[in-house]
Write a structure and sequence with these properties.
The chain is of the alpha/beta class. It has eight helices and seven strands, in the order E-H-E-H-E-H-E-H-E-H-E-H-H-H-E. It has two domains: 9-185 and 224-250, Rossmann fold; 187-222.
Amino acid sequence: MDLGIKGKRAIVCASSKGLGRGVAEKLAEAGVNLTLNARTESTLRATADEIAGKYGVTVQIVAEDVTTEAGRLALLRAEPNADILINNAGGPPPGVWSDWGEEEWLKAINNNMLTPILLMNAILPGMIERKWGRVVNITSGSVKAPIAQLGLSNAARSGLTGFVAGTSRQVARHGVIINNLLPGSHDTDRTKGFIERIAATRNISLEEARAEAYAGNPTGRYGTAEEFGAAAAFLCSQFSGFIVGQNLLLDGGAFNSTMG
C-alpha cells in the first residue's frame, strides 16, 4: 500500500532500537527521509546506516539527549522543516508513591510530558504554514489502564494525552494531524529484561517465564516492533486526515473493554 508520503521528512526520537526503530523502518519503507535521534551515537549510526542501505532514503542522526534544551535545539537545527514528528522516550522507573519526591516528579514530567510538548510547539507552526503535518506520540497502555507501580509514567503521560486532546483539534483544520500510540507489551529489550528478572526471581527457565508472560495476552504473544511501526506509519500517511486526537491502543487485546 502506497502511504502517499514518499519524500516527506521525519524526526523520529529514541529510534536506535525498539519501537522507535520499528517506526523509523516503516517510514523509510514508505520513502520518508529520516532524522534519527538517540543518545548513544554508535548504536544510532549503525541503525541509520542499515536503514539507509536497505531503503535508499536519506538518514541523518542527532546523538543528543532530547529531554534537554540543548538536545532539542540540536535536533531542530538538523531538521527545521519536519513533515512528521515521532515523539518517543523511555519511561521513568517503577516504584510506589512514597518513593518519589520532587526531583523524581520533575524528571518524569520533563521527559514524558514537557519534552514532546516543546517539540510539538517548535514544529507545529511550520506544519501549519505548509498545510500538512503528522505527529505521533508514543505513550503507553498505562495511560488507559494505569499500572500502580508506574505512577510517574501514568501521570506524566496522561498530562501529554490531555495536551494532545485539545491541541489536535485546534490544528486539524490546517491539515496537521496529531495522535497517540499506546503500546502494551512488545518484544523489546525492556520486556526481555523483565522476563529475565522473573526467571531469576522464580528460579525458572527463560522459556518458562516467556511462555507464562505470553499466555497472559489474548494473542498468546507479545507485539513486534514491525507491526507497531506499521501502525505508526499509517497514522503518518495521507489517509489519516480524519483521525484526530485519538489514542490507539496496541496491546493484543490485553485491555478488556467493550467500547475502549
